């Protein structure tokens, strides 16, 4: 990838991959890394598509209208990319998924528990259920000539009493997993 100021920051990540012929695939785990999601009591697994884990908080008093949920996605990109360049493109992708979405905050920093960067993105998303709050934590790191992206997104109505402070994502080296990829 090119350096800062190259104009790529306004491109969506999917467009960048398509334009450069770089394959990306959803995965259920990363070689050499463990991905852990911290959730307060009361969260339940929900029907999840391949490459994603969905949990819902059935105790949400707003559940009849919209039930608070978290979605973990894990992606493996078949190229080594600069995490600091990837994160803005991922943000742009999320911003453009639903017309009228507004960004409320964005931060990017070095991860505390290992290699790579950790980014946060908060959005207000218009929907048929009313305005939704979306808070994503994204961990981006490179390993074995690949870029690994784990993203945990909490979506809830603004008035939902969901415990937002005790939901988290950690990606750490896993000594039990070998380097099985060729």
DSSP strand count: 10
Total number of helices = 2
Mean pLDDT: 89
Provide the helix percentage. Answer: 10-25%
- Helix-strand topology string: HEEEEEHEEEEE
Strand content: 35-45%
Global Rg: 17 Å
Main sheet makeup? 8 strands, antiparallel
For the record, give the distance between the C-alpha atoms at the N and C termini, rounded to a whole number. Answer: 24 Å
Q: Uncertain runs with pLDDT below 50, 5 residues or more?
A: 1-9, 178-182
**SS content category:** mainly beta
Write down the overall geometry. Answer: globular
SSE inventory with pairings:
Elements: H1 13-20, E1 24-26, E2 33-38, E3 43-46, E4 52-57, E5 69-77, H2 83-95, E6 102-110, E7 117-125, E8 132-143, E9 146-156, E10 168-173
Antiparallel strand pairs: 1-5, 2-10, 3-4, 4-5, 5-9, 6-7, 7-8, 8-9
Describe what this molecule looks like in 3D.
The chain is mainly β. The protein has two helices and ten strands. Strands 1, 3, 4, 5, 6, 7, 8 and 9 form an eight-stranded antiparallel beta sheet that branches. A two-stranded antiparallel ribbon has the order 2-10. A hairpin with a 5-residue loop joins β3 and β4. It is globular. The relative contact order is 0.23. The N terminus and C terminus are likely disordered.
Salient structural properties:
disordered N terminus, two-stranded antiparallel ribbon, 2 helices, 8-stranded antiparallel beta sheet, 182 residues
Provide a brief overview of the structure:
This protein has 182 residues and is mainly β.
């Amino acid at each position: 990838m090119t350096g800062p100021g190259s104009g790529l920051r306004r491109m969506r990540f999917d467009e960048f991959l398509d334009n450069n012929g770089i394959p990306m695939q959803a995965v259920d785990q990363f070689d050499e890394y463990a991905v852990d999601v911290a959730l307060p009591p009361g969260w339940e697994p929900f029907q999840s598509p391949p490459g994603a884990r969905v949990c819902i908080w059935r105790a949400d008093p707003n559940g009849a209208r919209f039930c608070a949920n978290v979605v973990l996605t894990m992606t493996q990109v078949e190229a080594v990319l600069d995490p600091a360049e990837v994160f803005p493109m991922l943000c742009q992708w999320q911003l453009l998924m639903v017309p009228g979405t507004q960004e409320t905050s964005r931060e990017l920093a070095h991860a505390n528990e290992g290699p790579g960067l950790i980014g946060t993105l908060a959005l207000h998303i218009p929907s048929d259920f009313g305005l939704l709050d979306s808070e994503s934590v994204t961990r981006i790191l490179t390993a074995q000539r690949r870029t690994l992206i784990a993203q945990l997104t909490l979506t809830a109505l603004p008035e939902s009493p969901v415990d937002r402070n005790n939901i988290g994502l950690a990606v750490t080296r896993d000594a039990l997993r070998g380097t099985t990829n060729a």
